[in-house]
Amino acid sequence: MADVSDPAIAQAYEDVRSDKSETTWLLLDYESDRSDRLVVTSTGTGNPLDELKDNLDEGKASYAYGRVSYANDKESKREKFILVVWIGPKCRVMRRAKISVHAADVKDVLRVFSIEVAAREKGDLEEEPIVKRLRKAGGASYDGV
Fold it and tell me: How far apart are CA 3 and CA 126, in angstroms?
């Protein structure tokens, strides 16, 4: 089991979800290579997909939660939440093996999201395909995709 008991995780989650906070994303990393304890290592106020790419380590497994804003047309703007499960290409084998179990523990704390993004390389965090998935998940895909 992953240890997600750090109160800073719940606080960062609430900040991302709150309209009163400028925080748009959070990043959880393991406290050390041998630990199953997760801690908040970064938060940000910009585009989560762009900023996460700069904060993800190719040698680690991480979890991120972000608020993604997009427009369906000129008149409307939507905000949806995503959960990113990152397994860097240089992540240790034993850490990789635990990710599916640990992701379930993370979802107990980062509960509300529209889609889960499994990312193995930074290119998996490109905005266009993620927004397309959000539109489909939200029932607001008017372009026939």
Answer: 30
The 3-state DSSP class for residue 4 equals: coil
pLDDT in tens, 46-76: 999 999 999 999 999 999 999 999 987 778 8
CATH number at residue 26: 3.40.20.10
Q: DSSP for 64-122? A: EEEEEEEEEETTEEEEEEEEEEEE-TT--HHHHHHHHHHHHHHHHHS---SEEEEESSG
First-to-last CA distance in the chain? 38
| Cβ proximity of 45 and 22 under 8 Å | yes
Number of domains forming the structure of the chain: 1
Amino acid at 98: K
Cβ-Cβ contacts under 8 Å for 141 (sequence gap 6 or more)? 132, 135
pLDDT (tens digit, 9 = 90+) per residue, 82-97? 999 999 999 999 999 9
